Amino acid sequence: MIKKLRFKFITLSTGSLLIVLTLIIAVMNIINYSNTVADADEILKFLSENKGTFPNFEKIPETEMKWDKNDGRLPHYMSPELPYESRFFSVLIDENGKVIYCDVSRIASVDKESAKEYALEINTLEREKGFINKIRYFKSQEGKLTRIVFLDCGSKLESVASFLFTSSMIALSAFVIVGIVLFFLSTRIIRPISESYEKQKRFITDAGHEIKTPLTIINANVDVLEMDIGKNESLEDIKKQSARLTNLTNQLVYLSKMEERESFEKNAKFELSKTVEELTDSFNVLAVSQGKSLTAEIQDGLYMLGDEISIGQLVSILLENSIKYSPLGAEIQVTLVQQNKWVHLTVENPSSYYISPEKLEHVFERFYKIDESRNSSAGGHGIGLSLARAITEANDGKICAELKEENRFKITVSFLHI
């Protein structure tokens, strides 16, 4: 229980941290990439409005370098070094789709033939701008002509990729460091819960043993009174309630032991098919006596590793619940089959009470009863399915509940087949 709680704490904490770090890294890199593309588009737009080139800035006074569409001067937010840093080329295409001009003087990695191929390919596309390899392009109209300006963004995209790698490594390192810290601190963090849980288990065990003594004395005194005054309704009621209290005490103590998985032996190999078949046969008599039928479909030769006694207790709980909480004339179905590496035990029965999806989520909780009035004539304590889950988990199995049509309640328990 405590190990499971510690594992959940570490998993939830590290999972939450991973989600937060992933979102931060994703947002940072999306913004970085978007800014890179936006800067490239600004440069391309400026080049397009200046017929595919930068103006001669040497003839423009530095104080006059402001944005002006008419004379094509450099925008005030662009660096004066930009014309010398940028690698670009432009191609002019006529209305018939032929290249009439190609300027590749400002780029060394692309020749005229490649530039013409790029331009003709892009001219067939409807997009105004985009990427071809690592080159950003912008398409604009100059009368009946189409000018396509290209800007080499290879170095900037490499910087974007480098930033992505660096930020991811930093985030991953932070995740690992925090995970290690949480692993060592988790014991201290959940210590109050662990101590409270241990006290609860001790209380249940000690109280269980202490209650057994007065119950034994009560039963002995009832037997003496029966010999003196004979049987009567009051004495029968005392015996009945004493038996219920004894059963509840035993279940609580057993549940506490099942949840203490460190001291649980689960490496014995036994035939699950035989255990289920024998218990089904024994409960069939009880079902018939209550006007109900119990049918079983059990596959032979299915084995598992676990504690045979506790598994028998598990099967008994499921069969007892199915008989106790099904209406008169109900047909209870028990199935044991192998599917791949798993052995699935299912117990299905119509329920005497309406089960909503909200109630279904709580059926394995301690003292939870589907009958909200808690006055059921069945006399359950609401601890049977909690014990069933504890036994299943102690034997490394899985248990789930589902509701089928016509208010049929189905419990499925799965164990690894060997």
In short:
It contains 10 helices and 12 strands.
Question: Helices and strands: which structural class?
Answer: alpha+beta
> What's the assembly state of these chains?
single chain
How helical, in percent, are the residues? 40-55%
Query: What's the Cα radius of gyration?
Result: 39 Å
Give a verbal description of the structure.
- The strands form three sheets. A five-stranded antiparallel β-sheet has the order 2-1-5-4-3, with helices on both faces. The protein has a five-stranded mixed β-sheet with strand order 7-9-10-12-11.
- The two termini are 26 Å apart.
- With 418 residues, the chain is α+β, with helices and mostly antiparallel strands.
- The chain is elongated.
- The protein is built from ten helices and twelve strands.
- Helix 1 packs antiparallel against helix 4 (154-189), helix 5 (191-229) packs antiparallel against helix 6 and helix 6 (233-259) runs parallel beside helix 10.
